[in-house]
Amino acid sequence: MKFNRLLLASSSAIVLSAVGALADKNVALLNQSGDGNSALINQNGDNNTAGVHGNASKPNSEINQLGNDSDIDFLQQGDGNSIGTGDAFQQTGNRNAATVEQFGSGNEFTYMIQSGGGASSLANSLTIVQDGDTNRVKEVRQALSGGTDANAAVMNQVGDANTMGGRIRQQGSGNALNFLQTGSNNTIAPVNNVAGNFGIATSVHSVTQSGQDNAMNVEQDGSDNFMRAAQQHGDQNIMSLSVIGYENGQSPLTAGFSASSGAEDSSIWQVGSGNDAGLMINGSFNAYGIAQQGSGNSASGMSVIGDDNSVGVGQYGSTNIVYPVSITGDDNSLGFRQDGNGNTAGGSLNGNANLVKVNQTGSTNNATVTITGNGNGGGLGFGGSALITAGSLLSGYSTQSGDLNSTSLTITGDQNAFVLSSTGDDNEIIGTVNGSYNQAAVVQIGNNNTANFTQLGDGNNVGISQ
Questions:
Q1: Does this UniProt record's set of keywords contain Glycoprotein (predicted)?
Q2: Residue 51: inside a domain, yes or no?
Q3: Residue 456: which H helix or E strand, with range?
């Protein structure tokens, strides 16, 4: 068995290579101070280490670059290799860059910190590529104080049963974070790496933060859960997604209902400042999408419990709120779209196969839909007075176009059809349905209209037009 240790301390360019007969169980250590340093560490074989945790008895046992405009490249080819064991890889300064390539299986990128500061500080960058199976990126920290440019991290895992996380953290202005996992049974661990981590058999295509004081947390627990993109562009945005179950995010949003939100399938987008989005899914085969464009929008505290449900939220403007939102049951679809400012909407579906869309165009509108039962809303037809009033409008829709409109609908029962529409300002609709196979259509055009209806029992039909 071969064991080699190489230690270099310098302020220059270094190429360190371990190949051939001395390929296994090599240890590479590096300390560079000053500006404009560069280093290449090339290890070919198995169980090699670049950097180990230092202590009083083992000084200079890490990978350290202290200064500005430094660059380091790692290339490890083989199995069971590691970089930065303990807290043993650090770059301190501005405009530093690190590139890591690990080819093989069972490799680990254990720890790295890039830090800089000062009014003139610029970005640090990190690129990690792991090609193989059962590889892991455990902890990455990028901290920038006082500067204006971005810290950048790009992490690419190709293969099966790979893990991203413990902790991926960016602090400072204009951070950029991108994940790409290609393969099966890959894992994204939560921000806090504790026992019982979430994240089995998941894939994330793009996770990005660009701005200041953004927060992002993604947790997936189950098999074949899919997240297409999580994007934050702006300042002080908050994003949280928790998924427990199987094959969530694999299905598209429901046409005409959750898809009417304008959000992309399996994606969370925030463009602007001060936006807040939070979604919890517990079940399987659920679809989701959230899009926020503007400032001060909130769609937090949303929950989906069950299977084959779909929820979509689109907020395009400022200070719009979607809350509370909850789905409990199977095969439900709920979509919200807010175009304007200061709108408020909420919805609750408790049952199966309910289909609802809430659209608000304008400012300071309020709409809530609460359903307990099965098969309400979309997919049902109208007859009688409800058909005459609804015209071409479809069941399951609640729409507001104008300002200061208010709509509230509560349904308890099964197979109830409804459409609620207000066009104008200061209109109000209040509806209560307790029974099954009822139909209700309310269409208001103009200002200061009020409609209040109650249906008790089965087979009632109402049409109101103002």
A1: no
A2: yes
A3: strand 450-456
